[in-house]
Amino acid sequence: MARSIIVTGAGTGIGAEIARQAAAGGYRVGVLDLDEAAARSTAQSLPDAEALVASTTDAQAVDGALDAFGTPDVLVNNAGIVRFRPLLEHPEADWRAVVDVNLTGPFICGRAVARRLIAEGRTGSIVNISSINGIAPGPNSGAYSPTKAGVIQLTRQMAIEWGPQGIRVNSVAPGIIDDGMSAPVLADPEVRATRSARTPSQRLGTAADIAQAALWLCSDDADYVNGHTLVVDGGVVSTVLAGMPRPASIDGVAAGN
Ligand SMILES: NC(=O)c1ccc[n+]([C@@H]2O[C@H](COP(=O)([O-])OP(=O)(O)OC[C@H]3O[C@@H](n4cnc5c(N)ncnc54)[C@H](O)[C@@H]3O)[C@@H](O)[C@H]2O)c1
């Protein structure tokens, strides 16, 4: 029987690409999204997929989706939102909404799938989509960076609690991805060009880069990888010291080099 996967937030962006690559890899796919039209459109474009309309923050709705689809072998907690505003002006409602979707949602969905896998005596794998913002805070990103750091720790917490029951849990931390929620930022041609040039790999990331990493972590090839966060960012988070001034003489670099 085909392995099954549920991808949350798979109506658009990175989640839709994870769903597409999973389907190409032979998975039966559950496309879970609160945007019904988007969920249906992704599911209809795939060979063996079902739209599951639910909010990841609603435990009852998530249980309903699992009743309809069955317990998946793999869960990708991808749904996420961002609300940009300096902390001093950040509305509480925005803060709570981001915490709810980005941190509570993966807990609710992960718990629901793990409970069922354990009750059915099956093993499985979960991948949580974090962000490099969970490692290096993004300016004016409000609760987004703290929640993405939380996703990295939630991943480790799930891994130590559920590993003994045969459920591996890992995370992917995407960098600057030319898709989904980054679209408004990357619509500015100068921002786009500068971000690309400052990335050691000299390009923006794609949804396909993230999907490949997520599906590798779910696969048997990653059988001994557990509690890990795989940074997929072309090297961006490693550039933190690159912008700091240094006297050229220290490095024996001739002036002008
Ligand atoms: N795009 C990037 O540059 C980038 C970088 C780092 C991390 N990420 C992370 O990747 C993930 C996907 O982001 P994206 O860029 O594809 O964004 P996106 O906005 O294109 O997609 C998010 C999807 O999640 C759905 N969604 C939102 N709240 C939901 C909920 N409560 N229940 C169910 N579905 C819900 C939306 O309807 C949408 O289809 C997010 O977790 C995001 O934080 C994105």
Model description:
The chain has a single domain (4-230), classed as NAD(P)-binding Rossmann-like Domain (Rossmann fold, 3-Layer(aba) Sandwich), CATH 3.40.50. The chain has a seven-stranded parallel beta sheet, with helices on both faces. The N and C termini lie far apart (60 Å). By secondary structure, the protein is of the alpha/beta class. The chain has helices at 13-24, 36-44, 59-69, 92-119, 144-162, 183-186, 189-197, 207-218, and strands at residues 4-8, 28-33, 49-53, 74-77, 124-129, 167-174, 229-232. It is built from eight helices and seven strands, in the order E-H-E-H-E-H-E-H-E-H-E-H-H-H-E. Helix 3 (59-69) packs parallel to helix 4. Helices cover 40% and strands 15% of the residues. The structure holds nicotinamide-adenine-dinucleotide. Residues 8-9, 11-15, 33-35, 38, 55-57, 78-81, 101, 105, 129, 131, 174, 176-177, 179-182 line the site of nicotinamide-adenine-dinucleotide (NAD).
Low-confidence stretches: none
What would CATH call the class? Alpha Beta
Number of domains: 1
Strand content: 5-15%
Strands in their spatial order, largest beta sheet: 3-2-1-4-5-6-7
Write down how many β-strands occur, each being a DSSP E stretch of 2 or more residues. 7
What is the averaged pLDDT score?
97
Question: Largest sheet at a glance?
Answer: 7 strands, parallel
Second CATH tier, the architecture: 3-Layer(aba) Sandwich
Shape: globular
Report the structural category. Answer: alpha/beta
Distance between the termini: 60 Å
What percent of the residues sit in helical stretches (DSSP H or I)?
40-55%
Q: Output the number of helix runs.
A: 8
